[in-house]
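As a warm-up, study this chain.
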Amino acid sequence: MNYLICLFLSLIFFAPTFAQSPVPIEKEPRHRLKFSNQYVRVFHVVIPPGDKSLFHTHLSDGLSVRLADASIRDEVLGGAAEDISVKRGEVTFGYRPGPLTHRVSCTSNTPFRNIFIEVLSSAGIQRAAALRALVAGQVLVLENARVRMSRLVLAPGQSIELAQALPGLRVAVSEGRLDIEVSGEKGRTLKFQPGDTQWHEGAKKQVLRNVGSALFEAVEIELK
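Now compare it with the structure written out below.
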């Protein structure tokens, strides 16, 4: 009888970690859906120190914008685990020719904060020709067949004119306050916190001016 009790307890406390049934990304509680349309789904991911996500499945290509320095462990279901150091402001892109099921643990003493963007559909390959040259204040950080990503840095009082022809997103990496003028629309002033996103349809000129007191940093994403 004692042997059976010990065996039962061992099954409870030492069950394999992969016994958890994977969930769709939108059902994973540390992935909070912030925005969605026909092109993208935008998730704000926060994993506190020592915590981990559930095993969850990615079905679409996706990109990440890191919001803080952290250390994580990325564990593929049934596969190896990889320890990764992430840096604030860096970007990554993952092609998904097939489903990916994994979970992420935060192994640092600071939380893992990330904006994850699923790329659901293409704006149309014929529109890739509409990509316009980057301007002063923009630096290309990643480009492939699906997206172009550039870093935007504006000093206090600095302005920039963007002529983006393709739809896309702006992801704030820092706090800031911008005056934004879009052709054909009334100007407005927006306050940003790290992780805030702003969607634009493209084919319109935007003039941005940093009216805050500190450097403003963001990642501009154009969908091909």
